[in-house]
């Protein structure tokens, strides 16, 4: 067996304020806390994990760094909005009132939001 067959994928998310980030990912996004140690927290991310790592001087970049592919974009956006998540409306993108952008072919949909550190997260529906 190889690590690809037995290992659990882990996405790393850097944050500046560990408690604030943990509250957002756990309470607003609904991710379960798997474990914590002096350096960070592991959150359940489907069959994978997210590792929140606190870096006091961390500054987020402008591009999406983590996302979820969802079955029903409107339901997913609405559920997160009901939990207090604010979706980003970009000038000139032509998003709808919920913040959902639809590709010109009408098939793919994307909505973006940020965590408390400004990390860009997304929902997509293909």
Describe this structure in words.
- The chain is of the alpha/beta class.
- It has 2 domains: 59 residues, 2,3-Dihydroxybiphenyl 1,2-Dioxygenase, domain 1 (Roll); 67 residues, Roll (2,3-Dihydroxybiphenyl 1,2-Dioxygenase, domain 1), CATH 3.10.180.
- It contains 3 helices and 8 strands, in the order αβαββββαβββ.
- The strands form 2 sheets. It has a 4-stranded mixed beta sheet with strand order 1-4-3-2, covered by helices on one side. Strands 5-8-7-6 form a 4-stranded mixed beta sheet.
- A hairpin with a 5-residue loop joins strand 7 and strand 8.
- The mean pLDDT is 94.
Under the CATH scheme, the architecture of the largest domain is Roll
Number of helices: 3
Number of domains: 2
Computed CA radius of gyration, to the nearest angstrom:
15 Å
Summary of the model, kept short:
With 126 residues, the protein is α/β, with parallel strands linked by helices. Helix content is 20%, strand content 36%.
């Amino acid at each position: 067996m190889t690590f690809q067959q037995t290992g659990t994928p882990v996405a790393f998310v850097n944050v500046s304020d560990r408690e604030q980030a943990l509250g957002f990912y756990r309470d607003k996004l609904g991710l379960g806390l798997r474990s914590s140690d002096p350096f960070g927290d592991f959150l359940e991310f489907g069959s994978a994990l997210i590792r929140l790592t606190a870096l006091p001087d961390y500054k987020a970049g402008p591009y999406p760094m983590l996302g979820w592919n969802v079955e029903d974009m409107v339901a997913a956006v609405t559920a997160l909005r009901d939990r207090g998540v604010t979706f980003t409306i970009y000038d000139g993108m032509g998003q709808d009132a919920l913040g959902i952008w639809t590709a010109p072919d009408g098939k793919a949909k994307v909505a973006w939001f940020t965590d408390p550190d400004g990390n860009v997260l997304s929902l997509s529906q293909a």
